[in-house]
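stage 2 :: seqdesign
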């Protein structure tokens, strides 16, 4: 029981430390420019934990990834911000135009926005898991989203439930708001990646 309690305390400390690093390096990067590199660094670290590399030095790996991926992660961030702006524009367009033709295009627009939103959840996990070109990260994220609807559902529900529970205890958001959600997203994505890799290996064995 003492060992279990020690392990639980250690993991709580790990997640809190990473979350504080995420917030600190977001601020260091002047907010908007630091957010995406810090998020990529956090996901990279959490991926290492998921695959079993729990002895990785937290700060050095975080800082190394932050520096290395600063420009590339901000390129992804720029595209994501443009998408968010387009979503906002679409919602305003739908609200201002009602009836007739506009009612017909509402459903396709909503479906498209949901598909893009789900794809965005896989962008950073795909980026940190695979060594891919910029455009291939987007292609692979879309394909993973498309063929794993249950993972999409689990990811959204898990992240939403975690945020809701933490919102009931506001202090926990500062220590775990980013790291726990990142763990859910990265863990679910990693499971989807492993399933794809297993299918690919099975196909290769049968050919």
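stage 2 :: out
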């Amino acid at each position: 029981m003492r060992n279990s309690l020690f392990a639980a305390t250690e993991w709580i400390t790990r997640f809190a430390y990473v979350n504080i690093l995420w917030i600190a390096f977001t601020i260091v990067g002047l907010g908007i420019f630091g957010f995406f590199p810090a998020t990529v660094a956090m996901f990279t670290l959490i991926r290492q934990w998921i695959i079993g590399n729990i002895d990785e030095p937290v700060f050095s790996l975080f800082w190394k990834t932050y520096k290395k991926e600063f420009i590339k992660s901000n390129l992804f961030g720029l595209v994501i911000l443009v998408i968010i702006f387009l979503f906002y524009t679409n919602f305003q367009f739908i609200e201002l135009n009602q009836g007739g033709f506009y009612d017909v295009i509402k459903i396709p627009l909503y479906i498209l926005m949901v598909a893009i939103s789900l794809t965005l959840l896989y962008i950073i996990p795909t980026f940190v898991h695979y060594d891919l070109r910029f455009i291939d990260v987007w292609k692979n994220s879309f394909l993973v989203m498309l063929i794993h609807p249950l993972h999409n559902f689990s990811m959204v529900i898990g992240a939403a439930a975690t945020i809701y529970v933490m919102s009931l205890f506001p202090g926990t958001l500062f220590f775990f708001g980013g790291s726990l959600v990142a763990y859910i997203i990265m863990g679910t994505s990693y499971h989807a990646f492993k399933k794809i890799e297993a299918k690919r290996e099975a196909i290769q064995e049968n050919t």
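stage 3 :: structure notes
- The CA atoms of residues 37 and 45 lie 12 Å apart.
- The chain is about 85% helix and 0% strand.
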